[in-house]
Every structure is written in C-alpha cells, then in structure tokens.
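Re: the request from the purification team.
They wanted to know what the chain is likely to look like in 3D before they choose a buffer screen. I agreed to run a prediction and write the result into the notebook, where they can find it.
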Amino acid sequence: MMKFGSGRCPDGAALLARLLLMLLFVIFGWLKLANFSGTIEQYGPCWCDVADSGPADRRGYGVFVGIALVLGIATRPLAILMLVYTLGTALIGHHFWTMTDMARFEAMINFCKNISIRGGLLLLYVTGAGKFSLDRVLGWN
C-alpha cells in the first residue's frame, strides 16, 4: 500500500494534528471565558441553566480539555468527551433548522464544522496521541 510519505514522521504529524484540531477549542474557549455573559446570551435560555448552576470549570471546558489534548494527556478518554461535547454544541449552538436566510446558512456551516471536527476526534481516539505526548511519558498509551 502506498503511504505517500506519511510514514516518515507519524508522531510529529500526530502532534501537529492534535495542535491544529484543538486550536479552535483553546482560542474560542478562552474568548467564551473572557466574555461569559456574552456566551450565555449567544446560546440562549436552553444553556443558561446549565452554565449558571455549574462549576466554573465547566465554563472553560474547551480550553482545558483542548490544552490537555494538545499535550497528549488522557487522549483517548478526552477525545470521547470532546466527541459528545461537539455534538451537543452543534445541536444547541447551531440549530440551523430553526433559522432562515443567511442566519440558517451560517449556522449550517458551523454545524457541519462541528460534525467534521468529530471525525478528527474519532481518529484521535483510534490512533492515540503518539510518541510526543504525556500519555507516552506516563505510560498511558
């Protein structure tokens, strides 16, 4: 089978893939933490009860789990948690089926992005973090 050069540095590629996949969660998770009232407003009343009653760490979920996955800590279990999180975010935050016109189009794009990200997370679950990870250092592969 032809690998097209993918076998030359698979662990470096896994590290880069983790970084690129989690960049979105770290950046926008941080922005959500910095403007939490705006986040509540964006997601609407269906999300407020969870956010207002929950501990502060749930509010920064994307940041902390994103950083952990970049570092390769508990990669497989956190990839599964992020699979669930991105599905919930897609359904709650990007409900394009209730919208019209350009708002529908923009929400559909973001919904599809979340579903596509789930593909990368599933692959991360299957392959693990690779050599350049704390999972490897700690013997958690």
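For the purification team: The first helix runs from residue 10 to 34.
Please add any questions underneath this entry.
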